[in-house]
């Protein structure tokens, strides 16, 4: 069916549901799983300011992707516990673009995303991650109802 699945997460409850279902599908089909999380660029000044507020021995932990790394570790543990082969991808940029890039790079057969942000008039004005992915994906897309 699918040998490689890509799923995006931002650590929210709805994204965690998409990850959970992606893990279950990967487990049942024997697919590998690539988990993607995106982060916005953070100014050097903000990082320097944050580093002055923590003890010296943990300054190294202050980086633009620290929250994303935590999110990816948690999602990867879920996949590993289910016996699924997993890779994580922390990417700087627009979440939809990051997910699409990883799907292309890995020749994914399926992208899984949650439906958050696809209801109401906002999807026409602002766009959304699932909406953008559904229109530009290089493979099949599964949109999980998470709300």
Describe the structure.
This protein is α/β, with parallel strands linked by helices and about 150 residues long. The protein has one domain: Rossmann fold (3-Layer(aba) Sandwich), CATH 3.40.50. The protein has 6 helices and 5 strands. Helix 4 runs parallel beside helix 6. The protein is globular, with a radius of gyration of 16 Å.
Task: Give the structure's gist in a few sentences.
The chain is of the alpha/beta class. The chain has helices at about 15-30, 45-50, 65-80, 95-105, 120-125, 130-135; strands at about 5-10, 30-40, 85-90, 110-115, 140-145.
Helix-strand layout with pairing:
Layout: E1 4-8, H1 13-29, E2 32-39, H2 44-51, H3 66-81, E3 86-92, H4 95-105, E4 110-114, H5 122-125, H6 129-136, E5 140-144
Parallel strand pairs: 1-2, 1-4, 2-3, 4-5
Helix pairs in contact: 4-6
Features:
single chain; 147 residues; alpha/beta; Rossmann fold; 20% strand
């Amino acid at each position: 069916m699918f040998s490689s699945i890509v799923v995006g997460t931002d650590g929210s409850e709805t994204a965690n549901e998409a990850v959970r279902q992606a893990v279950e599908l990967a487990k049942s089909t024997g697919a590998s799983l690539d988990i993607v999380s995106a982060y916005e660029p953070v100014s050097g000044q903000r990082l320097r300011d944050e580093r002055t507020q923590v003890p010296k021995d943990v300054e190294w932990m202050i980086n633009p992707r620290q929250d994303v790394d935590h999110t990816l570790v948690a999602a990867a543990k879920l996949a590993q516990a289910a016996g699924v082969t997993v890779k994580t991808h922390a990417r700087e940029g627009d979440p939809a673009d990051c997910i699409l890039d990883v799907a292309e790079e890995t020749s994914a057969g399926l992208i899984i995303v949650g439906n958050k942000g696809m209801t109401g008039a906002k999807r026409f004005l602002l766009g959304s991650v699932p909406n953008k992915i559904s229109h530009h994906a290089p493979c099949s897309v599964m949109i999980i109802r998470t709300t």
